[in-house]
Amino acid sequence: MGESSNDASESLVDKDEFHDGLPTAFNEALFPESSQQTLKAGIGAKALDSYMNDDPTNIDARAESVAYVLRQANIAYRNDSVYSVVIKPKSKRAPSGDVHDYTSLARYYWKNPDTEDGLPYVRHDGKSNPDMESVWDYRLLRKVFRDCYYMAHGYFWTGETRYAEKIVSRVKEWFLEEATHMNPNLKYGSLIFGTEMGRAQGILDMFKVFGMFDALKMIEGSAAMKAEPQIIPDLQRWFNSYLEWINASPEATQERNAHNNHGTYFTVQYISILEFLGRNEEATAMAKDAKDRRVGSQIRRDGAQPHETIRPVSYFYSTFNLQGLMLLSMQAESHGVDLWNHKGPIESKTMRLNGLQKPVDVEVGGGTIEDAVRYLADYGSRDISEWPYPDAGGRSLKDVLSMARTASLIYKSDFWPELIERLEDKLGETAVQGEGKGDGQAVVEDGEPNGFLCELGFLSKASLWHCYR
Asked: Is Lyase included in the keywords of this UniProt record (predicted)?
């Protein structure tokens, strides 16, 4: 199939007030031949055929996932608002005063109730301050990545060229254009009101950049990319400058040395940028380093993640970190490094976290990523009261179910079908009961129906795309 999708059948285009003919559903007849060949090359023709036909539910999963992708892609395409760091109110600019400096606010810091001006802000771990939304940069940066990812999938599955054109426009607007670009640093990420510099935690704001890199790879053969031959070299210059800043930043060094989800996602971000820059030897070295630095030191032999279970929102952060470790394992596999089966040595570590009166000694090491997925899936299939750690947050069972299904593909262990069935039953049960967020309730509305896309990414060892959530 060529790039144009103007011959899309009437039943597959929006019939709402937009009347713009954007596709809304998967149509085998309109599936671009180039995308079909990319899938076969990434996964292998026989493996792809087996995946799609051995389990009939995968056909329905493809239809559901592509329909979801197209809904998101169409929303993104139709959004003509400006995405830029320069549009935030003057009162919310970085302490530098430079309109091009990115700024975000610390999530868990609140006004001091004991002082007239609210300073210094005080930390309430696990309790998000809605004032974060008063500075738009974080939300807009994540929208750039998310919009690009879903529009690229829209292009991949339908050949609709307008998605590719909008991706190019968004990337240039945020990173490259003189009037709207972001400076290549996160100096003022996770800023606490009343301070002059951001914090190490702000480095995490950029970790989903891999979604944009995946998008650019998916549309690399499009007319939109061919019309902008400088976009990749210019963007590579931006990210080279960004890595230079990271390498010189004390805050980034602190994040690099973190032992929990912050360290995990630092490595995810750094490797994805190295790959985009073509610095594959460095990416491979970082993947090897992640064996003990990220995987071995974070998973206990029973599958618990002690650096996350010590948090007041322990199930959520265990899920979040494990998603990162699986993403990191996917990256490492593309460099010939096996993180999936790595176990670290069993050791005792002393941990201290904000809110704890004194350090605590905990056991770390001895478990694999499969152990960690099994641990969360097992407790996810039980009553929330059985979770053995304090937890003030919610559980996204859809995310855990997606990880369990992916783990069953990777490890093929006999226990996965039964455990997945239990988790599916629990998810259905909580949906009927209408359980909601907070107070340890299972969250059933969270999570996106893109497990099919994630599984294709894992099966391709990241040669197609990564799992974006």
From this structure: yes
